[in-house]
Amino acid sequence: MQKFETIYGMAADLEGGVEALEALLPIPRTEKELKNLTNSFCLSNMSRRIFQAGLNRKIIDNKWPSFEDVFHQFDINAVRMLSDEVLQALMDEKRIVRHWGKIQSVRHNAQTIYEIDEEEDGFLNYVAEWPSSEIVEFWDVLKKRFKQLGGASGPYFLRRIKKDTFLLTQDVMRAMARWGAIDEEPKNKKQMNHVQECMNLWQEESQRPYCQLSMILACSID
Predict the structure, then answer these.
(1) Are 58 and 135 within one domain?
(2) Is the pTM of this model over 0.85?
(3) Which of 29, 43, 178, 222 has its CA 20 to 30 A from that of 145?
């Protein structure tokens, strides 16, 4: 597996220099900053990612104020108490995207945040304290406990709230293959754990957050 210093150098060359590359890199929130967020903020960003999946981002961006209005500013207790009849009526609400599975997911996910809040002494404590060196395991938790957070949606939700996580985009996987980390697209648990191990080695070498590792990898290929 290639040293990350070499990968960084290639990315900088392709982006027009170190300064240009550094300007592209995301900065994650600290553990303290994550704990200072609200559950409503998390539910809003989780739902925004869910509704955005498969659609043009601008569509959801333009409609999002209406989503906030319809779902009571994503207040956890208000949303988890919505009746089946209220949810069904939203299928006639033209201000939002009318996808039944995604509409249902908002109530389910509000309830799940509430439950984790009780189980773990705070949902945001749970998110903030989960080590990024085991983030693929957290992706699996999100997939199993929440609705519509499988595939890339779980990692993208974490990226939206700036929890440190890498992303496995097509460019990132192509770069990992080029630099000798993987030889095929990771699909099963064993392969995903191997990806985590590779990222951990690069993180230890570079001392960079995981979100920056994946961005640099994506920039390191034509």
Answers:
(1) yes
(2) yes
(3) 29
